[in-house]
Amino acid sequence: MVDNPNFHWIDDNYHCGFGHNNNIIYNYCYNQLNMKTDDYFIILNPDVIIDYNVITHLIDNMLKNHDLIATVNLFKDIDNHIYDNSIRKFPSLSDFIKSFLGFNNPSVVDKSLLTEPCSIDWAAGSFLVIKASHYSNLKGFDENYFMYCEDIDICYRSALLNIPVKYYPNFHALHLAKHANRNFLSKHFYWHISSVLRFLLTKSGLTKVKSSIKNKASY
User: Fold this and answer.
1) Mean pLDDT for the chain?
2) InterPro entries this protein is in (predicted)?
3) What is the dihedral sign for C-alpha 75, 76, 80, 84?
4) How far apart are the C-alpha atoms of 145 and 47, rounded to whole Å?
């Protein structure tokens, strides 16, 4: 792969965090690879296995439907029988608490009920496709998150612009997730708790700002 002229290996900045590293990659594509505003920037985890044709068909559909941000249907098994909970509603504090305690999380979307492309609240950052111009308008990921919830945050900020995530259930990929944040007292669990608090506070602040703008516009 390294010998391929279209393969670029960025061999530094390993410890910047998920969102920050994706911003580094975006800036590299823009400044070094001549990425255009009409191009699509793909956020793809190394533990996601996806066929190239799935990506090209997804992009074709995004172009046709003028989608600015979208995702596919992730599964946990190669036979596509076990859904990955990769699409959800925007969570509340009680949703996070129920998830941490091992109860059913009300924010999880039942994928079996979605058979056609539709708008959703947010999708996991393990696979997201964002039009380059939209990524730029959103100023990329919030680098104050080190790991976890930065995907919720960027989708939430997009939704505030009335641009929800488009979910394509018929395009599949395999996600070999380990969910290290489930181990209590681990650094991943600490990162998760910190990110949850940051998102809830940020969400509250952004909602108040949007409400204030609407109220002023109505005068």
Assistant:
1) 85
2) Nucleotide-diphossugar_trans
3) negative
4) 21
